[in-house]
Amino acid sequence: MIFTLSANQPKPEGIELYTHRGVNYTGDAPLETAGVHTLAVEFVDAVAENASVTVNGRRAAAIAGWTMCNTGKTRLGAYLWEANETDLGKAPEVSVRGVPTLTSLWMVPGRDGDIIARAKETRVKPEEVKVPFELSRPMQLVSTVGDHSFDCYKDELPDTLDRMAELVPKMRSLGFNGIESYVRWDMVEEEKGVFDWSYYDAVINRGAEFGMKWFPLIIGGSAYALPEWYREGEPGFEGFVCLEHGIENNCPTIFNEQQTPYVEKYLHELGRHYNSWGDKVFGCRLGPSGNYGESQYPASGNWGYKRQKEHMHIGWWANDRMAHVKFAAAMEKKYGDIEKLNAAWGDSYGAFEEVKCFLPVMTDNRRKRKDFVDWYMDEMTDWCNRWAVWVREEMPDLDIYQSAGGWGYTECGTDFTDQTRGMVPVSGGIRATNEDESYELNFAITRMLSSAARFYGVKFGSEPAGFGTVRSVMNRLYNIIINNGSHLFYYYPNITDSELGSQRWLEHAPLLDQRSEPHIQVAALYPDTQSKLSDGCIRYLEGSSFFSQVCPLRRHLDYDFCSERMVADGALDRYKVLVLLGRNHEGDFIEKDTLEAIDAWVHRGGIVICPVLQSNNTRGPMTVEGDQTVYRRWASGDTGKGRVFLPNVMREPLEDYIDAIDEILRSLEDLSPLTKKMLTADHPRGVYLSALESGKICLYNDLLRPAKITFASGETVEMEPVSIRIV
């Protein structure tokens, strides 16, 4: 059956984010047989897109030739589609997406081996790939290529390599130079002590044929990656147990050292095997714990041992036997005397052995709650740091990145600053695994990582949390440019399944050569202590009292986050202004040492902007114990060589405080001309600016319409929808 172009084809207009527009074709005869049919799509390979085919509204399975790599040659695509009784007796309607250069389209009954073989024969060969750009400042541009599933098995290697035959040349034709696999412990050590790397060796070699280097995620602490001999045959296994329900799952608890020798051996064997593959391997990232394979406790999502469902939720995973023992020992080390702990917590324990883990929400004592959350997060940081050391011991020459996900909520256990800082001893990097469709949200949940990475001299990379449209493709590219990133990852559907994704990527990815450290003179204090004392601070992403201020302030200027750990390590000397974004009814709590360090910086000449909210909340920052000495000092004018601005505004609308910050910043003579140029530019909401240390301004138009930016000098910049400019 031959298909011809249907009449009255709609003309695409504007940018479509969530639907995929195709070209429609009608069969030249009624369909006569049900069952499997083979569709053949002949095309000139003149674009970099992914093709998809639907027949009568149902998607056909892509078999071969479904990726285009802009080689210029004529190729064939093969698809299988199942016809049912309702399809018979009428001409089928086919919609083809992503093939603007289609030359012919036909369908035959059955699975046609000849069409499939011809489609595979015309796949792109290594020598035919045209790399669209070469960066003079190289970096790792990594993607999945059909081998990242939680559910891959060694006997499926032929299928994996077949998918790679489509996707490796495709991603190379988009300028990518690295591929990511999920390396599961159960895949390489099916039998205790016997390591088989053949599956991943074959994957590496297939990528290397096209000049792509390997960058795997190493998973050993997730339930779905556990070898059967370890989970069921070794004594002493314990999974995480939640405090909410007392139910165990199959993610090995980090509080029990039972897993340590086995995981350490796995990581050493991996490092020994692949360190010598340096010409084909970039390095790796670590997946120490949790259900995803990241640097966190179990959270949402459910990939279990032997693919079974697990008890899995965001919560407090410190209810196993050794969690209680380790927490009590940590408190004994901190307080030394049980009466000191009782005084701090308002409790009456007779001995440290009586101290147990507890749900933070169940105590009204701020110090008690913070002690538990501090310990809980420190334990995860320590486990992640140990993983980094074990891998580095055998892999001294390659990159190692920690995987930091979530958005900073304390149940996750991921302390963005401490996990970044922990990569310094191993000369490693940090990869934010949490980016989203929204640029403002991306800024809010990755800026702590990128700020810490710049301060501690750690390489920074990023990853999306899932599907994204062209806006996600572009705002993530913008984020890595203005943070001088060294590693950028996309799942291949992020670019290839997004309307205009490939086009915008090819137009703008060369700007990576101009990536730069941001020129930052303003920082917002990250609410480490507050987030541990109040769920409203960060835990509820859409209702976060902190992020609700972070996003509108970002519309005015680019700025850093400065955590309490960074304050202790001297980071304030990098900035001219520190902004406090407090709006919590119960008070804005900061540790005493941090407040005193900020005060000392102010007395040396620093500038603080702190709100005095007209509301029923407690005004001004205070220590965990409620001491407001530093704030009262500022309110009395005792600021030494520095200044403290206390704008007196209503709690709502929030923009009153954000506008007050903007007005104060514009009035400061302390800020550089480049910062002022960014700050004073006139632009629509949805356009973002970042001043760069290169002396330029990087702009991102997130709008689906053109935008005009006017600087105070009168200079104007016109921008296309969803685009980046550096001026």
Spatial strand order of the main sheet: 12-14-17-18-19-20-21-10-11-13
Helix percent reads 25-40%
Task: Please tally the β strands and state the result.
Answer: 35
- Give the C-alpha Rg: 28 Å
SS content category: alpha/beta
What are the segments in which pLDDT stays under 50 over at least 5 consecutive residues? Answer: none
Instruction: Characterize the main sheet.
Output: 10 strands, parallel
How far the N terminus sits from the C terminus, by CA atoms, comes to 54 Å
Helical run tally: 21
Question: Keyphrases for this structure?
Answer:
727 residues; 21% strand; 21 helices; 10-stranded parallel β-sheet
Q: What's the structural blueprint in terms of helices and strands?
A:
Blueprint: E1 3-5, E2 23-27, E3 35-44, E4 52-55, E5 58-59, E6 61-64, E7 74-83, E8 93-97, E9 102-109, H1 113-121, E10 140-144, H2 157-172, E11 178-180, E12 182-184, H3 185-188, H4 198-208, E13 213-214, E14 217-219, H5 228-233, E15 239-241, E16 248-252, H6 260-274, E17 283-287, H7 321-335, H8 338-345, H9 366-394, E18 399-404, H10 416-421, E19 429-435, H11 439-456, E20 459-464, H12 470-481, E21 487-490, H13 492-496, H14 501-508, E22 522-525, H15 528-533, H16 547-554, E23 560-562, H17 564-568, E24 577-579, E25 588-589, H18 592-604, E26 607-609, E27 612-614, E28 621-622, H19 629-635, E29 643-645, E30 648-650, H20 655-667, H21 673-680, E31 687-691, E32 697-701, E33 707-710, E34 716-719, E35 723-726
Parallel strand pairs: 10-11, 10-21, 11-13, 12-14, 14-17, 17-18, 18-19, 19-20, 20-21, 22-23, 22-24, 24-26, 25-28, 26-29, 27-30
Antiparallel strand pairs: 1-2, 2-8, 3-7, 3-9, 4-5, 4-8, 6-7, 15-16, 31-32, 32-35, 33-34
Helix pairs in contact: 2-4, 6-9, 11-16, 12-14
